[in-house]
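Q: Sequence in, structure out?
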Amino acid sequence: MTAIRPATVINDTEHVEVQAELGARWLMQPAAFEALTGWTLKPEGMCRGDVCAPIYHRNKVIVDGLVDLQEAASIIGLSAVTDPERGVAALAASAPSRAQEMITLQAPDFTLSNLAGEPVSLHDFNRRKVLLLAWSSW
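A: Exactly. Output:
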């Protein structure tokens, strides 16, 4: 058994410091997985509110009471890439989820600074149509 140590998970909006057992697999306490993803490990599977995703191969997802980040991510509709040696993982929406967002034309919320340096979020426009222009000097 490998010792639990600090590690970093990069998701769509931030870098999150977690405690994980980083051997051949990326394992973390169920409470840490819940804090990271919002999904709770229960006997019926991974649950968020009233929604539960069953775990069919429990021994692949739960190892000695710890949650395998990569295996559990696929159950809840996320993609995970882990580098246990360096203590870094990336967690994002799965390709099918992203494809669905493209079909519905619903952009994920984000916040950027305007020319005056004030934060402006997409949700500030309250479902009005928005034209985004991007430019770079390079």
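Residues 4-94 form one domain.
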